[in-house]
Amino acid sequence: MEEKKKIESKPNNCLSRKERREAFKKKIKGRKEMKKNRINQCKELVEQKIEIIDGMRWVVPYLYWFEVMVKERWIGKEIKEIMKEEFHYSDDDITRAFEKGLLKIKRNNNEINENCIVIQGDILLNQIHRHELPVPYLLPIIYEDNDVIVVNKPSGIPTHSGGRYTENTVIRILEKERNIKLFGVHRLDRLTSGVLLIAKSSEIANEIQRHFINAYKKYICRVIGYMDSCIVNKPIIETSCITKQRVTVGCEGKASTTIFEQIQYDEKTDTTLLWAIPKTGRMHQIRVHLSYENHPIANDSMYRNKNEYCTHFSIPENWKQPECKECTSGIEIPQENLWLSCVELSVEYHGTTKTFISEIPKWGTKNYDCSKDLQEWRTVHNQILSEVN
User: What are the pLDDT digits (tens) for 17-53?
Assistant: First the structure.
């Protein structure tokens, strides 16, 4: 039994082929179980109360079981250590969660409601009083037929459920509006705006995804300083949640290529307007490549400065909420705008290549004066940094 525990707590690269096969089976079984639980939770959320305030969609806070498969970097660690490092829980928070049965590990259909060392195949369960962040209410439709819906996604709303969002996502909102099941084909980062393609059936989603590796995507962005046209060909690797930047350039990462074409340099604000054409589809690829070239997106709090980090942009007065009586925590409003937008997407389905184009945001026009926006961003950014530090 002791030998089996040692094997289960080893990382994947130390396992034999047979052990890796068993670990993979556990992972698939765990994912199926998590999917089933998420479906049941979504059914319970159908009647979740929604409020529209000043063009923003609010979800009334609710209880939610957060589930996540144990990641490889967690194996061999105690739950307490994981909750502190990955989710920034305090010792008091962890103790209280264990006492109330709100934090546990699911292992082989058994639940462990105490601190323990996690192993391969475990599922971490944590019940939270979820405060979903408000998102823009209107979702402009670019194109729709019997197979797909193409949306001009606003900045600040996620594509699908995950993290702090279940109800306030593009797919979930459209599903509730139309009373149909929708399927994601690709995704845009929460802060990235622009063309987003959604399928009306799993068959269409699978068909488009088979061709998506050859899809043509064109973005517009505004970066710091003078940047000429160039090609950035640097591998990208995901980092731990502990670090400030989730993704970085690294020799052990996946091959990543982005073509940048200069549109205009604005001497007044010392910013450059660029076309960005990614040839691969890595997480935060454009943002990371621009940061690597020392020309990050001008209002990108995450990648603008390696020594600074801030998840907020501005907190309008009418967005503030009082502290929650259920969990004694208020709502933090994250940066709701990023000067990065997908303006063109060409992809093949039904044997034909179709092109979808979105309207260029106002900050992406040649004559737009962004000096006021930048000044506001710097003021709020520096204020929050001083409070954090």
Answer: 666 666 666 666 655 555 555 545 444 444 567 888 8
Is residue 228 annotated as part of the catalytic site, yes or no?
no
- Number of domains comprising the chain: 2
One domain, residues 269 and 378 = yes
Distance CA 153, CA 219 (A): 13
Which residues does residue 193 pair with via DSSP β-bridges, in sequence order?
A: 341
The residue from 93, 147, 189, 228 that is catalytic is 189
CA angle 258, 264, 267 (to 5 degrees): 120
Which amino acid would we find at residue 171?
I
> Which range marks the domain in which residue 66 is found?
61-128
pLDDT tens-place string over residues 103-156: 999 888 888 888 899 988 889 998 888 888 888 888 999 999 999 999 999 998
Buried/exposed 169-186: b ≥16 CB within 10 Å, e otherwise: bbbbbbeeeeeeebbbbb
CB 310 within 8 A of CB 381: yes
The secondary structure of 24-49 as a DSSP string is: HHHHHHHHHHHHHHHHHHHHHTTT--
Could you give the CA distance from residue 366 to residue 6 in angstroms, rounded to a whole number?
Answer: 61
276 part of a folded domain: yes
* The total number of residues written for the chain in this structure: 389
Cβ atoms 170, 139 nearer than 8 A: yes
Report the CATH number at residue 231: 3.30.2350.10
Q: 3-state class of 44 per DSSP?
A: helix
Which of these three, 128, 146, 165, is where a domain ends? 128
| DSSP secondary structure letter of residue 78 | B
Q: With a threshold of 0.85, does the pTM exceed it?
A: no
Q: Whole-angstrom Cα distance, residue 54 to residue 33?
A: 39
Q: Which residues contact 86 (CB under 8 A, 6 or more apart)?
A: 74, 240, 241, 242
